[in-house]
Design goal:
Elements lengths: L2 H27 L3 H39 L4 H11 L9 E2 L5 E2 L2 H15 L9 H17 L10 H9 L14 H6 L1 H17 L7 H4 L2
Antiparallel strand pairs: 1-2
Helix pairs in contact: 1-2, 2-3
């Protein structure tokens, strides 16, 4: 096999690899299921062609070695050189790019770059600077919102509402809103404050909850 033949096969495989990558992109963008299936089938055919071309390339190399060995059976020096040449690592038909955008074709370099990628991918994300301060500010804001003065709250009898919640009967059917007495009790102070605010708004708007009697029983 001449160098021109070898170069031709390598270039042909390279072009098919690029075509396969483009078809993969088109497949991801396709919204029509029939078109997506067609592109997948085309990609499979290209993969088979790539495999065939690579196998043909290897067969040609073997044929050349066999022919030369047959012609120079008694020349051990030439046989040894050909053996070493046949055992050299072949450039891969596949390629990756390193962090700087340089193309990698050597199997060792591709393996190294792949390892680097997954090390970077699964490296624990460092806590961003200022995150703890953000958490503290958020906690202060929540506390302030709950403790902010409410004009209507003074008109309500907090102790009575708390007592009603604590004395709700358990194992009762839920009201029309699907909230059980146990859920209200487990809500703790946040639930109590929410009920107080709701009651305050109802009083302010002079409107009673339509299903109050069904929910608190």
């Amino acid at each position: 096999m001449s160098e021109n033949q070898k170069q031709g096969i390598d270039e042909e495989v390279k072009k098919m690899m690029e075509e396969k990558r483009e078809i993969r992109k088109d497949t991801k963008r396709a919204t029509n299921m029939e078109e997506k299936k067609r592109l997948i089938e085309v990609r499979k055919n290209i993969e088979n062609l790539i495999k065939t071309k690579i196998e043909e390339n290897e067969e040609m190399k073997i044929d050349k070695i066999t022919k030369n060995l047959s012609e120079k059976r008694n020349n051990y020096n030439i046989m040894w050189k050909m053996k070493k040449k046949s055992q050299k690592k072949q450039s891969s038909a596949f390629a990756l790019k390193d962090k700087e955008g340089n193309e990698l074709r050597s199997p060792d370099n591709i393996k190294k770059r792949t390892s680097e990628h997954y090390v970077d991918l699964y490296e624990p994300n460092p806590v961003k600077e200022g995150y703890e301060r953000y958490e503290e500010e958020l906690e202060r804001l929540i506390t302030y919102c709950w403790n902010a003065p409410d004009e209507t709250k003074e008109e309500l009898m907090d102790e009575e509402i708390t007592e009603v919640i604590n004395n709700l009967e358990k194992d009762k059917a839920t009201g029309p809103d699907g909230i059980s007495n146990e859920m209200i009790q487990r809500g703790g102070e946040s639930m109590r404050n929410s009920i107080i605010r709701m009651m305050g708004k109802n009083i302010l708007n002079r409107r009673n909850p339509r299903r109050m009697a069904d929910s608190l029983h």
